[in-house]
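Look over both lines before class:
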Amino acid sequence: MDNFLMYFEVLAPSIGVGLVFWMAMRAIFRADRSERDAEAQVRQEAPQRGSGQAPGALDEPVLEELRRTSRH
């Protein structure tokens, strides 16, 4: 039992740091995916609004909506 506790004491900090890193990366990837989904939705809705611009160009109201929806 003493060996187990010794190994646990040695490995616990590394496992803890690994879990924190994993949670941080997971949050970053989820935020990036949500931002891309919001941008795709705004770009899809832009031609329906009749902006008269090219599909890749975003006017100010569309950009404002993109900024508002990506802050979640």
Notes: The chain has one domain: 2-69. The longest helix spans residues 2-45. The helical segments are 2-45, 60-69.
